[in-house]
Amino acid sequence: MTMIESRTVEQSLLETLVNALLAERFLDHEALAHSTPLEGAAGQTPTLAALGEEVPTIERAAVREAGSQLWSMPLDGHTWLVMLVRPDVCQAQVLVPGTQIVTWQGDAPVGARCQVLDAEALMRTLARAFHPQSPEPDAGEQVFLKALATTRWQLTRSCTHAIRTRGLMAQPPMAFFTLMEQWASLIDRPYHPTAKAKEGLDEAEYVAFMAEFDQPVTLGWVAIRRDAMITGAQVGEGEQPADFLMTPAERDRLITELHGRGLAESHIALPVHPWQQRHALPQWLGEALESGECVVLSAVSERWKASSSLRSLLPGHDSRHSVKLPMAIHSLGASRYLPAVKMINGDLSAALLEQARGLDPRLGEALHLCEEGRWWGWMPEGASLFDEAPRHLSAMVRSYPAEVMADPACRLVPMAVLGTRLPEGEHFFDHWLDWCSTPATRESVCELLAAVCDRFFELTLRLFCLGMLPEVHGQNAVLVWREGQITGLVLRDHDSLRIALSQLSRCGLEDPEYRIKPGHANTLYHDDPAALLFWLQTLAIQVNVRAIVDATASHFDVEVSLLWQTVATSLRGRIDEVVTSPELHALLIEQLFEAPSWPFKQLIRPIIARAGGPGSMPFGTGESVNPLRQISNV
């Protein structure tokens, strides 16, 4: 790890945090200085010239960045929080890249008026400002600070990744896909300051189990009594996880062990992640292990590789079957267990998506679904779908579409890859352009972005017209790349399909009757298409597409405005092409292009508000600028 790489991680983390704080209005928007960058009240708010004496990079950036302004917010009677900001397409203000955020004391001696803050120091400073009567971080702020510290060391460690892209496009489909998953793992969710944090892993475990280090993972196996098991919609008579996840030799050894221990008729063997077996099973399965309801086996399956989602693993042998397992680590503010209720809802969603494919020939042709209905979960007598212990021992076989995996010309590209540059300065578009023997120009880069957006928007809009929207952030939405063209989209993780019942009904589709825990927030059901549109604006565009735009602009030195215009043209074209309902067409144009603001999915406030504890990813909403309206004024 070089000092340059370490500084890059610190700066990246700071910028992500500050921009999220600005977007969620943690920082007082009224504090934006209305004076020009060269003016200010001496001895109170700093002038740019005075600030430049202490932190020269800020003054230089102000000269370089057109439209930048000095932003300041009073913390107490004599201290100000100060930074240089500029307007952005997706939010009102962002920190000027490469600059710092500082505290300023105008009455201090020259040379001692500024203190440069890193991400942790900024959050502690804000905690003191928000509740000066008790200046230490409260419980929720401590949870966030812990995740922030974990993010720092894990991002830094990931700079020494083992992703090898030489000859990438010549790799066979599964080897190519495994590399893509490693690439997508580097950042995890974009714009989330603690997305990379996998709390519960020490450094050795982080390297052993994160995809970007390309380490083989050996799965353990646990036998569960058959009458304490719940299974998925696609599990056939007599089918077991080993049928899909083990090599023939591994399966023979498992069968021999089950017979030898008298478990072959009474129990079914489930795979378990080695981290889960070491850390979680002793805590949550103590009584079941003592009674023999669950039995830890000596059988293993080897050569698995982590994907961009830590608990989902890809096979090291030639197979289209991957596996998703629970891990009691914390990531994105939630525990990564695998409850049966989520998989039941996934079965219901998959059935609805299959109906959509039958109703719309284009969806039937270009939208591909991972098979996720083969799952097994421990469900002891008297337990409910919402109990804690059972969600720590389960397994889902995820089978990638046979029609795609059997085509030697097809390559699967998670959209998160397109929103991530490798630390060495590499973008997937480099490989795509090389395959096409096309030089990297503004025009050629925009053509690739348009190709991605055209297919992505076409298929998501077709689903929207039927009253449903998958959770199409960059990890769940996987592009089908075939001989230089984007021919389709593969969806995975079906448990979060959002629906508008009124629109489903108009299209002849019925309520899937999701299982929702009584008294808990529900984000699956929506009253109408206008409410459903939230997920297209947030996860699809503000997270997924925005990350692609920003990574592409940075890597190829193309104007962000030009790339957003490409996005807007693609989206408007697909709306005109796909949406035949006048009411839906008018809604989409008004809300996507004409509305002064868009909804925004908050990241930091919900984590702090929950202050830890069990549950799915914390959820909250806010308001942000409309990027498509912004770009129309450029």
Automatic annotation (TrEMBL):
Sequence ranges assigned to domain Aerobactin siderophore biosynthesis IucA/IucC-like C-terminal in this UniProt record: 454-603
Entry-linked InterPro entries: Aerobactin_biosyn_IucA/IucC_N, IucA/IucC-like_C, LucA/IucC-like
Span of domain Aerobactin siderophore biosynthesis IucA/IucC N-terminal: 178-418
Keyword tags: Ligase
Pathway(s) this gene product operates in, as recorded in its UniProt entry: Siderophore biosynthesis
GO biological process, one term: siderophore biosynthetic process
GO molecular function (one): acid-amino acid ligase activity
Enzyme class per UniProt: ligase
EC number(s) on file: 6.3.2.39
PANTHER family registered for this protein in UniProt: L-2,3-DIAMINOPROPANOATE--CITRATE LIGASE, STAPHYLOFERRIN B SYNTHASE
Protein name, per record: Aerobactin synthase
Organism, as annotated: Kushneria phyllosphaerae
